[in-house]
Write a structure and sequence with these properties.
Layout: H1 3-14, H2 20-27, H3 31-40
Helix pairs in contact: 1-2, 2-3
């Protein structure tokens, strides 16, 4: 499991190209690990882009 493979798997899962199980297999990790990675890299609900 590399960060690049997990990142790619998350992208494919979020775009609904793969199911969670398929994305975990592609990323070389378990579904639990992929879910934890997704939570870790999810945008915070309270953050907004800075005004320029």
């Amino acid at each position: 499991m590399t960060s690049k493979s997990v990142s790619t798997a998350l992208t494919l899962y979020r775009s609904r190209t793969l199911t969670l199980e398929q994305a975990a297999t592609a990323g070389g990790c378990s579904t639990t690990q992929l879910e934890e990675s997704a939570r870790a890299f999810a945008p915070s609900a309270g953050t907004t882009p800075a005004d320029d």
